[in-house]
């Protein structure tokens, strides 16, 4: 399916922009990344999410897969940092998913709806100052953290930044090379990332050096092997962001609350923040 001329059908004052696909990268049969042109008026904080989508298709006896003219939108964390020229996303491919069964077919030059408003709590503003920042993600929950770690601001706020990414299979480790290379080649953050960033991938259903769930890792010295200081989470100087499935968030929250961490928000910053990347 091609989406090459949505602009001709959209009201100029609509709640969304029409942006073009710059590139698409397929990681495996479950995951892909893509980037859209950035509307000059789009402002967001690294870690926020936005609604994006395609026209809703309707089937009738006369015509199959006709564009209804209404957008089908879903929430997506922006994976690129606030200063970037394009807006990048990491997406699941849900086989029967209303949006992603079609979104996975986009090609450079296609058009995608992008909402004007961004929001979210996975922002450094929602955390009180600390020394170490732990970014704990399952699956596509990595997306907002790709934005945060590519923003120089995070390295000014925290001495150490640790990304833990838990997936089922090795091929689900999107951005593994970039993260293992500590963002080498990124002119804005590579110097700070080399010294301050660390990456702990864990694969839970295939052989891999680390195979534990995040809920286990966060309670063991293993998660602190790359960081200086205590080998446990301490709310006095550690800050945590959680992004992933509902179950992962709930279980990690239970552990953090037991350790004395308090949830933060934009209105009242705290020791940790959450965003459910999907309700699965
Ligand atoms: C705040 C927020 C941020 C989000 N950010 C992202 C993102 O950056 N990337 C992304 O791929 N999705 C993200 N999602 C999920 C996204 O909004 C859609 O659910 C997803 O694109 C699938 O859309 P769909 O219409 O194909 O299927 P849906 O009907 O939306 O979902 C069908 C089922 O697929 C499963 N599912 C949906 N999304 C995921 C996922 N990401 N990982 C694993 N299983 C999933 C769930 O079981 C869900 O019930 C986010 C959701 C929220 C609420
Ligand atoms: N990614 C795939 O290979 C794949 C393939 C087909 C379909 N899907 C569908 O896509 C949806 C999501 O798949 P996904 O792989 O992205 O996400 P997922 O099932 O949430 O798994 C991602 C990672 O999160 C871990 N995890 C799950 N629940 C957790 C919890 N309560 N606490 C801590 N860690 C937890 C998993 O560990 P465990 O492995 O120990 O659960 C895995 O390492 C599912 O509905 C699935 O059926 C995914």
Describe this structure in words.
The structure is a single chain. This protein is an alpha/beta fold and 280 residues long. The protein folds into 2 domains: 7-119, Elongation Factor Tu (Ef-tu), domain 3; 124-276, 3-Layer(aba) Sandwich (Rossmann fold), CATH 3.40.50. It is built from 7 helices and 11 strands. The chain has helices at residues 100-103, 143-149, 152-157, 176-180, 190-196, 214-217, 246-258, and strands at 16-26, 31-37, 49-58, 66-77, 86-92, 111-119, 132-138, 160-167, 197-203, 238-244, 272-276. It has a 6-stranded antiparallel sheet with strand order 4-3-6-1-2-5. Strands 9-8-7-10-11 form a 5-stranded parallel sheet, with helices on both faces. The longest helix has 13 residues, at 246-258. The radius of gyration is 19 Å and the shape is globular. It binds flavin-adenine dinucleotide and NADP nicotinamide-adenine-dinucleotide phosphate (NAP). Flavin-adenine dinucleotide (FAD) binds at residues 49, 74-77, 89-92, 94, 97-100, 139-140, 143, 275-280.
List keywords for this structure.
five-stranded parallel β-sheet; alpha/beta; 2 domains; Elongation Factor Tu (Ef-tu), domain 3; Rossmann fold; 32% strand; binds flavin-adenine dinucleotide; 11 strands; binds NADP nicotinamide-adenine-dinucleotide phosphate; six-stranded antiparallel β-sheet
């Amino acid at each position: 399916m091609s989406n090459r001329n949505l602009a001709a059908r959209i009201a100029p004052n609509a709640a969304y922009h029409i942006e073009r696909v710059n590139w698409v990268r397929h990681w495996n049969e479950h995951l892909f990344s893509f980037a859209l042109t950035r509307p000059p008026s789009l402002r967001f904080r690294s870690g926020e999410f936005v609604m994006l989508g395609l026209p809703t298709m309707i089937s009738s006896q006369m015509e199959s897969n006709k564009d209804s003219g209404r957008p089908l939108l879903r929430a997506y964390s922006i994976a690129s940092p606030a200063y970037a020229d394009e807006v990048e996303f990491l997406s699941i491919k849900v086989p029967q998913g209303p949006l992603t069964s079609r979104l996975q077919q986009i090609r450079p030059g296609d058009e995608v709806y992008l909402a004007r408003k961004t929001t979210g709590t996975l922002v450094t503003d929602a955390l009180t100052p600390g020394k170490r920042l732990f970014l704990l993600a399952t699956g596509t929950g990595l997306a907002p953290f790709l934005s945060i770690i590519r923003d120089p601001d995070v390295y000014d706020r925290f001495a150490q930044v640790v990304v833990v990414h838990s997936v089922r299979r090795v091929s689900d480790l999107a951005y593994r090379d970039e993260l293992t290379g500590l963002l080498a080649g990124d002119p804005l953050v590579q110097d700070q990332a080399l010294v301050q960033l660390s990456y702990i991938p864990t694969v839970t259903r295939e052989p891999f050096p680390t195979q534990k769930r995040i809920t286990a890792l966060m309670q063991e010295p293993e998660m602190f092997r790359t960081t200086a200081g205590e080998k446990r989470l301490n709310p006095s100087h550690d800050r945590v962001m959680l992004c992933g499935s509902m179950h992962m968030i709930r279980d990690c929250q239970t552990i953090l609350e037991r350790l004395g961490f308090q949830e933060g928000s934009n209105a009242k910053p705290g020791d940790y923040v959450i965003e459910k990347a999907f309700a699965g």
